[in-house]
Amino acid sequence: MEAELAMLRHFIGQLQELCELYGSPYYPHQLQQQQQQQLLPPDTDEPPRLLHDRLDRRWCFLDIDESSPEYCSPIMAAGKSRGIKNIDPCKPPPSKKSRKERNQGKSANNDKSAEVMDQEIWREFPEDLFEAVIARLPIATFFRFRAVCRKWNSLLCSQSFSQHCAQVQQAYPWFYTITHENVNSGVMYDPSLKKWHHPTISSLPANIIVLPVASAGGLVCFLDIGHRNFYVCNPLTQSSKELPARSIKVWSRIAVGMTLNGSSATGGYKIMWVGCKGEYEIYDSVKNSWLRPGTMPPNIKLPLSLNFKSQAVSIDDTLYFMRSDPEGIVSYNMVTRIWKQFIIPAPLHLTDRTLAECGGRIMLVGLLTKNAATCVCIWELQKMTLLWKEVDRMPNEWCLDFYGKHVRMTCLGNKGLLMLSLRSRQMNRLVTYDMSNKEWLKVPGCVVPRGRKRQWIACGTAFYPCLSATA
């Protein structure tokens, strides 16, 4: 009992010092009367009460949370007291937090616990599932995960990892483009993240200009500006090689197409080039050589007058090339080695037309210009009538920007998702068009790394990114 009274006297002394320091509304004689009332003998009916239970609540209240940064613990002879928070007597007591504030605090704590939980999960994650998980991450993370450790960097050489990547089908293709400002290096656009990437492909020659002309299975085919040498490269992994020299020396402009031997690049690929006079050759990656299967049949009118602005369209094992005089399409089947010709009149007032493909259907994209109005239109080839049927066009409010301007269009890529470069003296615009959903979207400008200068897109092609594709 004496020890408890000693502790109480010590505590009361501290409270008196606090009263003098912070200006308590109680006077000394009142405080002395309260002290005498508190120190009642043990045989009285009223239990002893602490002084701070009866003091003015404007300046102190109990703090149950001892982890608070404002927690203070008076030194006592025995035991540990609860903390006391000091408040300015002129300020009102703290208000109760709203439910939104309390929920925000809980969410912050949950985020911290989730981080700890994630670390625990990954620490015990089975080793045999790492490749399956990484293969299903967004392709953009590939640029970062290789730097984690040597083991993850070596996944590109793993056969099992290649099999996991082959099972993942990418929803949208990427675009590999060349800019007017820097023709010796390309830029890639990821439509899912709406972000530009600036890779450095050291394996491509730096002293000559190489342009992307075709793609298949995550690989991009390049041709030098002199139409002499071919290169194949995976822009993500920089796996690349230069193809052997062609047996036919044709230095004029040529059209190029590319197909796969199977469902992925692991089974090999074929590249075909066609000249206006009917010359053509096929490169087989399995044999690593150029082959000349034969000559073009006489029912196909020569010269072809190929539309070099339009890239070849590949559907299964067949390549489709756009030609003029007469207007139409020529096709070649890589397996059966059969040529076909389709005479298809082009829509009126159409310029800058390009072939495209969506779900096995042959599409046509072009600028429809009449008087001073210009609009981008989409047509689909009707198999029964072999005529073009308009299926969509750019929104009218976008086309108003083209009114009275001499607009030129370049189609970058023709596989389900189109990227259109629309330019004039007063305008440089990039848009994408999803042929499946008929959705038009504006593309953010391609800016030089660490700069603000906007780059102009010159040419490009679409490719489905694949980490396991090797040249």
TrEMBL record:
What does the UniProt keyword field contain? Kelch repeat, Repeat
| Stretches for region Disordered | 83-115
Entries under SUPFAM superfamilies matching the protein = F-box domain, Galactose oxidase, central domain
Q: Which residues cross the membrane?
A: none
Which CDD domains did the record assign?
F-box_AtFBW1-like
**Boundaries of each F-box domain copy?**
119-164
The keyword Protein biosynthesis appears for this protein: no
GO BP annotation list: leaf vascular tissue pattern formation; regulation of auxin mediated signaling pathway; simple leaf morphogenesis
Q: Which Pfam families does the entry link to? A: F-box, FBA_1
Matching entries from PANTHER family are given as: BNACNNG10540D PROTEIN, F-BOX DOMAIN-CONTAINING PROTEIN
Protein name per Swiss-Prot or TrEMBL: F-box domain-containing protein
